Amino acid sequence: MAERGRTAGFGAVERSKVYSSVAEEILAGVRAGAFPPGSPLPAERVLAERFEVSRGSVREAIRVLEHAGILDVRVGSGTYVVGDGGSETTLRARAAMAGEHSPLDLIVARASLEPVCAEHAATFRTSKDLRAIEETLVRQERLTRENGDPSGADADFHLAVAAASHNSVLAALEKTLVDLMHERMWTGLKHRSRGRGNRAEYYLEQHRQVFGAIEARDPRRARQVMAAHMCDIETDLLAELESGGDPSGV
Questions:
Q1: Same topology for domains 4-97 and 103-249, yes or no?
Q2: 160 three-state secondary structure
Q3: What is the pLDDT of residues 73-95, one digit of tens each?
Q4: Which class in CATH covers the domain with range 4-97?
Q5: pLDDT digits (tens, 9 = 90+) for 199-220
Q6: In angstroms, rounded to a whole number, what is the distance separating the alpha carbons of residues 192 and 83?
């Protein structure tokens, strides 16, 4: 790929990558400041000629970057840069190119749902629910102590809390989010953030606090602790993203 495409415009992209390479080249230009927020991109036809790809590939790249909040397609006017290509929007774009969801978008969804699950679990839980939640904590504690991978037990904890809400819709939504947590970008970024310092032990302790509030039938406390847990996960993901360089390498 021509160096000129990184600084003063765009260069031809590798044909094997097609639209993802086009998107990456546009991202590089935005992040380098060649195309600051508010500036227009060259016309689709011009981009296709510079990249030496089809206009369809350019169109798909623009669609991905628009979804990520980096570009704005204005009918009858053109395509404009609206984002600065920061880590969060870049991660969303690269996740879309990989057919996945941004880990940061996923944690936002979890932060909206899981405190509600914990709150209702504290109200409607049964002794059977408590045993199910506690079993996940035992497994998570063992794996954490042995320096194993506690991600499975961690996910099972959140599923058990949702099940304890006895709200089938909340449980189904939680199952969907847990399924998304198997995507490569989420697992890579979360694994790296969990490995920092004593975060694995810290997350386990937060789970214990959620369990304690549910056991004590304290809905307000359960919601607050789960909300704090989600906030800490988001903070840790952002810190890892900022320190880890290329988000596609998670």
A1: no
A2: helix
A3: 998 889 999 977 777 888 888 88
A4: mainly alpha
A5: 999 999 999 999 999 999 999 9
A6: 27
